[in-house]
Amino acid sequence: MANTVVKPRTQTKTKTARPPLYKVILLNDDYTPREFVVLVLKAVFRMNADHAYRVMMTAHRRGACVIAVYARDVAETKAKEATELGKQKGYPLFFTTEPEQ
Ligand code: TYC
């Protein structure tokens, strides 16, 4: 239209950058008792008994299982804490992290 007034955009949208997410991965081993893996998953990753058991069995059968995604520092701290709990008992239980994608 000839008389259309076009208003310039003056509003700026603030986009908050999301921190990149990191996966925490549980690795299987031949020595850590299943019940202990479940206990650690419940304690460190706040899983209920059923979820913890299913995650443990997935790692047991497939060799590894992605258990959760967090911001990098949270993922690394939880992986370290969980690995340390196994170490204290002399188990080779291991949790690692990697960037999502
Ligand atoms: N494979 C172990 C066993 O048979 C149990 C286990 C499951 C250990 C999952 C680690 O991430 C793991 N006792």
Summarize this entry quickly.
The protein is an alpha+beta fold and 101 residues long.
How would you summarize the topology of this molecule?
Elements: E1 21-27, H1 34-45, H2 49-62, E2 64-71, H3 72-88, E3 94-99
Antiparallel strand pairs: 1-2, 1-3
The chain binds L-tyrosinamide.
L-tyrosinamide binds next to strand 1, helix 1 and helix 2.
Mean pLDDT: 93
- Helix count equals 3
Shape: elongated
| Proper CATH architecture | 2-Layer Sandwich
CATH class assignment: Alpha Beta
Strand content: 15-25%
Percentage of helical residues? 40-55%
What's the total number of strands?
3
Q: Can you describe this structure?
A:
There is one protein chain. The protein has 101 residues and is an alpha+beta fold. It has a single domain, classed as 2-Layer Sandwich (Ribosomal Protein L30, Chain: A). The protein is built from three helices and three strands; from the N terminus they run βααβαβ. It has a three-stranded antiparallel β-sheet with strand order 2-1-3. The radius of gyration is 22 Å and the shape is elongated. The termini are far apart. The model has no long low-confidence stretch (mean pLDDT 93). The site of L-tyrosinamide has 13 residues, from strand 1, helix 1 and helix 2.
List keywords for this structure.
101 residues; alpha+beta; Ribosomal Protein L30, Chain: A; 3-stranded antiparallel β-sheet; 21% strand; elongated; binds L-tyrosinamide
